[in-house]
Amino acid sequence: MRVLLVHNAYGRPSGEEAVVAATRDLLAGHGHAVASFIRESSTVETMTLGRVRAFAAGIYSVSARRAFRHVVQEFRPDLIHLHNLYPLISPAVIDEARTLCVPTVMTLHNYRMLCPNGRLSSHGEICHRCVTGNELWCIRRNCEENLPKSVGYACRNAVARWRRVFEQVDRFVALTGFQRDLLATRLPAERIRVIGNSVTIPPPPLSGPTSYVGFVGRISPEKGVALLFEVARRCPDLEFRFAGETVRMAAAVAAAPPNCRFLGHLAAARLPEFYAGARLLVLPSTWHEVLPLSLLEAMAHAKPVLCADVGALPQILDDGRCGFLFRRGDADDLSARLRRIWGCEEDLAAVGARARKRVIAGYAPAVLYRKLMALYRELVP
After folding, report:
1. How many angstroms separate the CA atoms of 324 and 78, rounded?
2. Contact, 5 vs 37, CB < 8 A?
3. How is the beta sheet containing 2-9 ordered, strand by strand?
4. What mean pLDDT is predicted for residues 85-113?
5. Residue 201 burial by CB count (10 A; 0-12/13-18/19+): exposed, middle or buried?
6. Which of 44-48, 82-86, 142-146, 198-202 shows the lowest mean pLDDT across its residues?
7. CA 334, CA 371: separation in Å to the nearest integer?
8. Is 356 helix (H, G, I), strand (E, B) or coil?
9. H/E element, 336
10. Which pLDDT band holds residue 49 (cuts at 50, 70, 90)?
11. β strands within the chain, DSSP E
12. Is the entire prediction scored with pTM above 0.90?
């Protein structure tokens, strides 16, 4: 099968880029011909009037549609697999795919179909105003705390909805059942399939000393990092290590307690060592996390994860069996839960072992490939 992957990469490292790359490698490894149509958000800053052009392109990019047409006509894919389209690609490529009669699949890595910022959160609170109302809420509340950005996000969502452009997509991929149920309020439920992310399964971990609480991911407000800083203040005898870029919360990081250590963004090759030294990972997100790779990676390394009880996380972890939960945004509950499980190393090891088994059964590359092929064959017999 010939598959064209379409993705607008973010300005900084993200899980979506890792997922797109893994999908490309997985398909190519099974003998499929794979091509990519990629745009990089990092180029916006170097463009003349870059932000203005990105604003316009996010609504409809004639140049992206023209370039996309050339790639499709040259590569002649059997199927187009869409990922992120904003801001430099835009839904214009969906129109072109329909014109060229090539079936489309779109993986939804977030909630952007329902919410302009993609998180269903506003000012640190879970928010469904745009789901039950419309995109003007993003402007009224200035959800991005940057009015031009909030206006841009709202406009591109509103125009796509008015044009009903996403109705042209043949199938959608939700990462979890929780996400599917929310998306079905706006998209045709019969077109949505649940196919989770996958992670490479590392060799069985060796036993060794574990000495710190770990966090992996972007260090930004919606990830609940401020809450974790507060817990670190309450637990000065524990060490907390953070793997992720700090630019979005530079001031808060500078004021973090002394038992917090920041390692910056770690390349994939360095993460196994980070996971090996952690006794457990904490995922304190304040929004409906979809399916974070850091969670699956930690579980694959047989590390228990202590998660906020939001989104699909309770379904994935099964509290006390493959991980642990605490009440979202509750520093008292997170501190108490962390204290209670920290010294129970045998119990933590057992939970980690069960977590690893769950990832192998549900999120290994072979599982993703089997599900992807079943979906693709619905459109390309």
Report:
1. 43
2. yes
3. 33-40, 2-9, 79-82, 104-108, 171-174, 192-194
4. 97
5. middle
6. 44-48
7. 36
8. helix
9. helix 331-342
10. low
11. 2-9, 33-40, 79-82, 104-108, 121-122, 125-126, 171-174, 192-194, 212-216, 239-243, 260-262, 278-283, 305-308, 324-326
12. yes
pLDDT at 48 over 80: no
| C-beta separation of 296 from 275 below 8 A | no
pLDDT tens, residue by residue, 330-373:
999 999 999 999 999 899 999 999 999 999 999 999 999 999 99
- Tokens found for residue 72: 């499709």
Give all domains of the chain, ordered by start, each with its CATH number: 2-109+170-198+364-379 (3.40.50.2000), 212-362 (3.40.50.2000)
What tokens were used for 285?
């997100």
With beta carbons less than 8 A apart as the criterion, state whether 144 and 150 touch: yes
Tell me the per-residue pLDDT of 54-76, one tens digit each, with 9 for 90 and over: 888 899 999 999 999 999 999 99
Q: Which residues contact 274 (CB under 8 A, 6 or more apart)?
A: 214, 216, 241, 243, 263, 266
Contacts of residue 289, Cβ cutoff 8 Å, sequence gap at least 6:
283, 295, 308, 310, 311, 312, 313
| Residue whose token pair is 């370039």 | 67
